[in-house]
């Protein structure tokens, strides 16, 4: 953990969520969502919390809230320690994690043709279908 003042992930999302996405005007005059550097850092570091736990065969078995993670200088860190729950625990985590990030990265801006940034659906599909062999992310 870093030496800075940390806040819960829930507090961070409530305060910074509007900085995670921006609407870009494309050359064809359509609008598209873009994930900002802040949004990328949030998504990268929160995803890393799960993949690091999974690589050790651990998870939260879907039993986590945004209050179970802390944020320091934009980096998400686990606060609640994961345990050994097996393959099913990791699948439960991914399902809940994907639901959470879909809420954070969804936009209802009427100018948009799509409610998520490009490639976001592919990313969440891959998360939901991670290959877990003998209780370890492979």
From TrEMBL:
Domain of life according to the entry: Eukaryota
PANTHER family in UniProt: OS02G0113400 PROTEIN, OS02G0303100 PROTEIN
Identification of the protein by name: Uncharacterized protein
UniProt organism field: Oryza glaberrima (African rice)
